[in-house]
Amino acid sequence: MNDYLTAIFLGIVEGLTEFIPVSSTGHLILATELSGADPSEWAMFNVVIQLGAILAVVYQYWGTFWSAGMGVLRREREGLMFARNILLGFLPSAVIGFTLYENFEAMLGNPGIVPWALIAGGIAIIVIERLAKPREDGQGVADLSLTKVLAVGFAQCLAMVPGVSRSGATIMGALAMGINRKTAAEFSFFLAVPTMVGATTLEMATKYDQLMAGATRVGWDEIAIGFVVSFIVALFVIRAFVAFVSRNGFTPFGWYRIVAGTAALLWLGIV
In the prediction, which pLDDT does 208 show? Predict the structure, then answer.
């Protein structure tokens, strides 16, 4: 597969998987292996194109972000609480991710971790969906307590292990804390913005010299293609996801993860 087709393929995978609880990083690692590309050459690409999917959140929820921003400037309670909850939810992953960056970076090159994480995460989703008692009222992101916000923030840190799923960890953490499905999904979307911007900034800072010096075959044109493709695909996924889980819950994603993880174990020859 040539580099442009690989960029399109990985962009589609990223857009499809970033906001559903199946692990976009895990799928990107496996998709890179499937495409025959060198994982070390495409590692930064796989991080940077996530910004395309994140831009889809900003586009889809522009009114929410604008209202929250204006609320902060006017010192209105709802805007301030929304901003507080997003920033505090992001804080644990920012501190742990920066501190242990090299450890987690090393895991990105090991596809053998992904199938086990997919299976374990799938089981966790099914169990939490069955046992959790989410509130079914109109509680929104700005209404969440500090305890719940920090709990979801620490749950997000689990996603630093490839295959765990950032959205899966945050959504299941939210459900376990009694947050309703719609708010859990939207809080996960909103947390993705500072989290992925931070992760991409760190990745670019550590590998910028390599990219500018042409030390990797993956250049700005492939990154641009992957960015645009992931944005377009993620936009459709975001619009359908909340409606889907409101009707069907998250259990179908749990079963998908178990099947996908088992297939990956067989494909990689691990079992």
Answer: 66
